[in-house]
Design goal:
By secondary structure, the protein is an alpha/beta fold. The chain has 13 helices and 10 strands.
Length: 265
């Protein structure tokens, strides 16, 4: 599992709950988070470094638990990097699973996406949603303040509440019936978002969705699944070991973390 910070721990928590038997390695590139503020080229380079690190640790399959990396690096990783370097391994993202479920939820075909600036500019969500139904109307809102505030432990503050209310006001007159939380960090805000956006809008948060889709993927790909270790070990790496990462990461994951600091450069 790879994320730019510890938002992906929310995804990992649901995956471990759904598939507890496997060994998991989690890598957070906290030193360079948030990825949404970086160029597409930088995000690709960071993601390639992370993928290479995890494969050298013996991972058979990697989930990019980061929407920005999924939007700006996944396709190139799958089409160019893997065939050349690791043809027997797999890298999956989070955008396609969320798009598939959102398309099942919507009744009127009008959907909103809350995401980082990088994910919004990539236009990956609209592209994937329109592949499923070309009549879909997609309204995206970039939220550059949310990830830094969450990573700083300010997800219950007045500052974040004000920023979130401002971002959500963008959707007030769009008549959406489905809202995709297009950043793994935003899962910690789902209850706040539900209260603010109203009961008539379905919220698509990625954790359980990605866990279910991964379970289905492993059922269909025995050639990958049979090589995965089943010792129930959990190892956590970060590029910036801080007290905040350890304390907040433990709260997000629901268990005490003892992360190990590494350098991806």
């Amino acid at each position: 599992m790879f994320d730019s910070g510890f938002g992906g721990l929310l995804i990992l928590k649901d995956i471990v709950k759904r598939l507890p038997q496997y060994d998991y390695i989690y890598l957070a590139d906290s030193a360079r988070a948030p990825y949404g503020d970086h160029s597409k080229e930088a995000v690709y380079n960071f993601t390639e470094q992370a993928v290479d690190f995890l494969f050298k640790k013996g991972c058979g399959i990697i989930v990019l638990a980061c929407n920005t990396a999924s939007a700006e690096a996944l396709r190139k990783i799958q089409q160019k990097y893997l065939p050349k370097h690791y043809p027997d391994r797999r890298v999956l993202g989070v955008i396609v699973p969320a798009s598939e479920v959102a398309s099942e939820f919507t009744k009127n075909g009008r959907m909103g996406v809350l995401a980082t600036t990088g994910t919004v500019l990539s236009k990956t969500f609209p592209a994937e949603l329109k592949k499923i139904n070309d009549k879909t109307k997609v309204f995206q809102k970039a939220c550059p303040l949310l990830v830094p505030l969450i990573e700083n432990g300010e997800h219950n503050t007045v500052t974040l509440a004000a920023a979130l209310e401002d971002y959500l006001s963008f959707f007030k007159n769009k008549n959406i019936d489905t809202l995709i939380l297009g950043c793994t960090h935003y899962g910690v805000l789902d209850k706040k978002i539900k209260r603010s956006i109203g009961t008539g809008v379905s919220i698509v948060s990625e954790g359980k969705i990605v866990a279910d889709k991964l379970a289905d993927y492993l059922k269909r790909h025995n050639e990958i699944e049979k090589f995965l270790l089943k010792g129930k070990r959990r190892i956590f790496y970060t590029t910036d070991l801080t007290e905040r990462f350890e304390s907040l990461g433990s709260k997000f994951f629901g268990q005490k973390l003892k992360p190990i600091k590494i350098n991806l450069n």
